[in-house]
Write a structure and sequence with these properties.
It contains twelve helices and 21 strands.
């Protein structure tokens, strides 16, 4: 997570200062409606995410993690309750944090117990109808600096200094030792080989698991700034010269074991400041652009400022890469640390509207039971304003989407699509708790399933409109 202000030069300030009239118009127009991207694209040339049957996917869910336990106890903090409760609230997607230091505690020695625990979580996800992306997570590189991620045996600092920042852990990314460790990870032949081996192991183990949708190749990658570079310049160079080759290498490693799952690639966190990524093309047909959606001011404890134009600036910047390379977008993390502040209801409404314009989905941070970033409290009830993330949506559409709109003020969701002529005829709807009336025209039939799920069976090639209303 981006928990501190990135001082990224005056370029960032300019990008974050759109005209006031534009901001006001946007926030007024989307007070009650969330408009989803269509299968024809968003009007920006951004394609939708699809499953192996060719159905158009919408992913809505949360990150799940256990950063407390490690070694023999790794992942024991995640229980079946996490998946069951997420599904009960209408969410069908989880981004599962996994740590290389737990998977491979010694070079070439992979933990069978850790792989079994990952498999157990995936089994729970399958049971509850949740699709999962396995995220190779790192915070401040890894345990050599008091965090999680890249193993200590794969950490090389050339003796450069590291000073902890207990009150601002994100600032530790800018310590010389941490930055040099990233350079070695990207450039050293043996570390490249080890990282690829880690991904071959994960993909080889879980390629055929029905809950696995894809793999997030490296969480929030950072790097080493050169003398005289500001953070924007450094980020663009790192993305272009180090991350792009790394993602191409890791894509090859995954494809040696798994030919079908999606590969999620992230820019550096500076994208949160409204800066387009410098990433180049990753030569694989199933790539997802997976940036994070954090505002540095809110991460530092400030309330949402609707007039600042941050969401608009972020949307303009984040759509550049998927437009250029024709890849879907899924936001891997988002959400403020304090959702109780006065303008946070407005933030969630504006954010949901924005995400619906260009993204195939998102994973909020984080599904846990407590305070801070947690989605729900100790009783399982949504924390302030986070219930606004729970809307009816079409999880899988067997056809070409024309429009998908949720009117939050009237609690009405409408989906229009042309049913596929071949393949699956079933479109899957995901519903939050409550009573919902579902109607479908165009000769389609509605099939009610378990709580929170419904399906529409359409005549091949027909035009279908589905209406979902709170009863």
């Amino acid at each position: 997570m981006l928990r501190a202000i990135l001082t990224a030069s005056a370029v960032v300030a300019a990008l974050l200062a759109p005209a006031t009239t534009h901001s006001t118009t946007h926030s007024t127009a989307h007070t009650t409606a969330t408009v989803s991207a269509t299968a024809e694209g968003t009007g920006r040339g951004i394609p939708p995410l699809t499953d192996r049957q060719g159905r158009v996917l919408t992913l809505r869910g949360w990150n799940i993690e256990d950063k407390t336990h490690r070694g023999d106890q790794a992942l024991t903090g995640i229980t079946e309750r996490h998946l069951r409760d997420m599904r009960a609230q209408g969410f069908g997607f989880a981004r599962l944090l996994v740590f290389w230091d737990d998977l491979e505690p010694k070079p070439g020695q992979y933990s069978r117990a850790y792989l079994r625990r990952i498999g157990r979580i995936l089994d729970w996800a399958e049971r509850h109808g949740v699709k999962v992306v396995l995220d190779a997570h790192q915070d401040v590189f890894g345990p050599a600096f008091g965090h999680r991620g890249i193993p200590e045996w794969a950490t090389r600092t050339d003796g450069l200094p590291f000073t902890p920042h207990p009150d601002d852990w994100f600032a530790e990314y800018f310590e010389p030792a941490v930055q040099r460790a990233f350079t070695h990870l990207y450039e050293d032949t043996d570390l490249r080989r080890a990282q690829a081996g880690m991904w071959r192991t994960l993909a080889g183990r879980f390629a055929r698991h029905p809950a696995v949708l894809g793999y997030d190749l490296l969480n929030e990658p950072m790097g080493e700034a050169r003398p005289g570079e500001d953070q924007v310049t450094a980020a663009g160079r790192i993305e272009r010269e180090q991350l792009t080759p790394m993602y191409n290498r890791l894509a090859g490693a995954v494809r040696s074991a798994d030919r079908h799952s999606w590969l999620f690639v992230e820019p550096t966190p500076v994208v949160g400041e409204g800066v387009p990524t410098g990433l180049g093309r990753v030569g694989d047909p199933r790539i997802v652009y997976a940036p994070h959606f954090y505002d540095s001011a809110m991460e530092s404890g400030s309330d949402y400022d609707p007039g600042a134009g941050w969401i608009e600036a972020y949307e303009r910047a984040v759509t550049v890469y998927p437009e250029r390379y024709g890849v879907p977008v899924v936001i891997g993390e988002w959400g403020p640390p304090d959702s109780t502040l006065p303008h946070m209801g407005r933030f969630y409404r504006d954010a949901m509207a924005s995400l619906g314009r260009y993204a195939s989905g998102w994973a909020g941070y984080v599904w846990c039971y407590g305070g801070g970033y947690c989605a729900v409290d100790d009783t399982g009830a949504f924390r302030a304003h986070k219930e606004l993330t729970a809307e009816p949506y079409a999880q899988e559409v067997a056809g070409t989407v024309g429009s998908a709109v949720y009117d939050a003020g009237r609690s009405v969701y409408r989906l229009s699509y042309r049913a596929a002529s071949h393949g699956s005829r079933l479109t899957s709807l995901s519903l939050p708790p409550g009573t919902w009336r579902i109607a479908a025209d165009g000769g389609a039939a509605v099939v009610r399933g378990t709580a929170g799920r419904a399906w529409v069976r359409a005549v091949p090639g027909s035009r279908v409109t589905v209406t979902v209303e709170r009863g």
